[in-house]
């Protein structure tokens, strides 16, 4: 491994190379004071570089030691299958749709929902934000929701309606399966449901990127968040963006960050997408916006 | 927030200084304005680019970006907080009642504040009539159920008739408009702008932004958005771009001043084989085409799908075998309902407050059956008749 791979600033890298340190081994063998003198930097900076170098070279050697995987960080298909058996789903409140999806919206995965205006994308989004909160004794997840609104179409009145209906459904479910449990009514109040939906109103693509970066910290602080809904991913990226290459890169980066988030915190990510018309083979057809990245 | 400069955001001093120092250097390199290094630039760059640009290690860049992100990202609110705020701060819980009972019930109280509401329909169906009525409703005093504020009415096609406005007022609210001086006061609250070009419109939008809060403006109407956009840009992409920018601007106007914004849209006939569905639905499309009932539905909204995504509420006004209907085609709070209506001397009147629930794609079709010029003549003759009585 070479010096160029070290996560240090360009000028320090230049100094290292100028002082003749081209391989990590060479740095690892040097002492901090030597390094500081050769590079003409302070002792603390030199020991920092030394730390990074030893860390990097030890990371290279480690894979031989691990037993299960040939390459670090991988997972066998069998393990994956076993893990999937225990993965949790968020119901869409629609049996047919749940069946198609194999149980509902899956945690640890990114789901995209696209459609023409007025078809009900926001409705599904709100529905999921409420359904994720169904307590575990009713077959739900009992988690919280983050709703990222880029279009301003989130309606609290509608959330309240859906929350009320959801509580009614739960009461009915209770009635059917636990007839003797009369005394224990559903304790949830619509306000509890509203309280557990974290709403972010994003007004520009910069804010959107910043929020996605920040989510990592936010979810760490609010561990019981089980779903993140982005309504919609596309809106700000479709408004006057000249540099298409930059747009593509930013979108890909955002998608990767969201996937990582889904995996690390075991939560579901639902992205709503708009449609656009495309000219294909002589006729106009509807396709998902930002489809061809 | 996003346009704030790096040095105003409370980064740890050492790294903040580096950002600022490079700031000038980057400006020199890119030859742009001196303080071009804003958040936007910082957040749009990769970590590696920033490492090179700022000449610092990866860890510093990562922590700085985390900090920048936290500052830039919008505040978090729970839905409960939003609801409480809305109930506490806003008259009529954030809705402008249309005084059409069925429609108000379906829409949780009327035209919602803070979002765009669109009226689509063929010429002569009653879009402007509806707008006139709404502007009156917003200007009414609070004790009469109005918003007690000013109205900005952007009249692109010069269709605003103050005579008709007063007439609607006298017929709908005789107790107010027959009082001496009240008609003048009510009408005096409605400001009509007549931009002749898109650029003039854009300019007035910026003025409106400032005056919205100072002048107690409670409603913004643009009649019609389609005429404004279609009149100027003929080529597809430039129109889309100009529209895209203005849509987000108007949306933010509505949101930050928390007022309802009503826009009208025209219709055009559908071009040839332009499909409204996905390719994999080709089969169902052909079935649709065979259905004789949909033969006349070759009308679509003049502003395309991107626009339709941007509006939050879409009301379709149409005519079917001589009967006019108003349909809730897109709304995050109401089911797809259609109400029959007619235009009378007091404006739009619903014939049935219950509404018919629409199934499938029917809610989005725009019919124009039996709304010929002769029927228009009849309705205006009727209206002359009632006026003379």
From TrEMBL, chain A:
GO terms for molecular function: ATP binding. It comes from the Eukaryota. Gene3D superfamilies: 5' to 3' exonuclease, C-terminal subdomain, P-loop containing nucleotide triphosphate hydrolases. Pfam families: Rad51. Keywords: ATP-binding, DNA damage, DNA repair, Nucleotide-binding, Nucleus. InterPro entries: DNA_recomb/repair_RecA-like, HR_Repair_Mediator, P-loop_NTPase, Rad51_C, RecA_ATP-bd. GO terms for cellular component: nucleus. The keyword ATP-binding applies. The keyword tRNA-binding does not apply. It is found in: Nucleus. Signal peptide: none annotated. Residues 86-275 form the RecA family profile domain. One of its GO terms (biological process) is DNA repair. This is DNA repair protein RAD51 homolog 3. It comes from Flemingia macrophylla.
UniProtKB/TrEMBL annotation, chain B:
It is found in: Nucleus. InterPro entries: AAA+_ATPase (IPR003593), HHH_XRCC3_RAD51B (IPR058766), P-loop_NTPase (IPR027417), Rad51_C (IPR013632), RAD51B (IPR030548), RecA_ATP-bd (IPR020588). Residues 92-267 form the RecA family profile domain. Keywords: DNA damage, DNA recombination, DNA-binding, Nucleus. The keyword Ion transport does not apply. The keyword Nucleus applies. Coiled coil: none annotated. Belongs to the RecA family. RAD51 subfamily. This is RecA family profile 1 domain-containing protein. It comes from Flemingia macrophylla.
